[in-house]
Amino acid sequence: xxxxxxxxxxxxxxxxxxxxxxxxxxxxxxxxxxxxxxxxxxxxxxxxxxxxxxxxxxxxxxxxxxxxxxxxxxxxxxxxxxxxxxxxxxxxxxxxxxxxxxxxxxxxxxxxxxxxxxxxxxxxxxxxxxxxxxxxxxxxxxxxxxxxxxxxxxxxxxxxxxxxxxxxxxxxxxxxxxxxxxxxxxxxxxxxxxxxxxxxxxxxxxxxxxxxxxxxxxxxxxxxxxxxxxxxxxxxxxxxxxxxxxxxxxxxxxxxxxxxxxxxxxxxxxxxxxxxxxxxxxxxxxxxxxxxxxxxxxxxxxxxxxxxxxxxxxxxxxxxxxxxxxxxxxxxxxxxxxxxxxxxxxxxxxxxxxx
Length: 355
Description:
- The chain has 355 residues and is of the alpha+beta class.
- The protein has 11 helices and 12 strands.
- It has 2 domains: 1-63 and 323-355, Malate/L-lactate/L-sulpholactate dehydrogenase, four-helix barrel (Hypothetical Oxidoreductase Yiak, Chain: A, domain 1); 71-183 and 226-292 and 310-322, Ribosomal Protein S8, Chain: A, domain 1 (2-Layer Sandwich), CATH 3.30.1370.60.
- Strand 2 and strand 3 form a beta hairpin.
- Keywords: Oxidoreductase.
């Protein structure tokens, strides 16, 4: 018998998250935007980037690691490129600004590239790439993070989890989307495993002495490993460079993570690339061809198997959880503690009846 996590009304969770952020002095519009992005990650089954992060965000807002009311500025604009200084604001607020700008550039010039400095965690990357894909744009996003990953053959935390998100618009029911950490497992998943008292898979991490471990606490004290051995490590290093070297953003090894110090100004760097499909053969042609590829991938399974195109599982989760969202008990406990600490009622955290 499979025990399912309790489900909570999605709209109530968005309101709850927004109120918590507002209590930490975030303007209502920014609070609602950020909360909606977190809940969307939970809807898609990406709990590591969902409301699990809300206590961290509020603690960092209160301690000064995240600026509740940033004065974001465009510090450079040249041709199809621009640089945004996010003034240590919420990464979701920075990304909302960036995606609007990069889409405008791409629609005018065929492609746009925007780099970001002085930012913070922006949540699940697919939330942003799929907003661009819905506008007919191929989107690529990457980012620095806090130090958590050692390069292939190493022990020291030099890299971040360096997420890579790519989305191509499709004539099918969902964009062709890959959203992944370049570590063997996402940092948030390791935190979630620790919170839930569960091990992490073999090959995800080493302890502080460089020995393989499945204990998430030892993994957090040690280092995560890159995916794919030396090849994955090379990808992670290049993404680190692209995310930070184009601006004054910090590399992971220069950063103190807000998980360790809520007052840390991490100076996170992002890079966002958008390509207008209409600038090539046509938007209709591109989206039809992507849909054809998706169907070929799905149809490649044997008689007893199932093959998913990238993004299919997350799209199916989001559809299944359109109105109500599953949350792990450990996340609910943390949310209740957070609301109590902020003097907010926790009565919105009432699970729906089990059918």
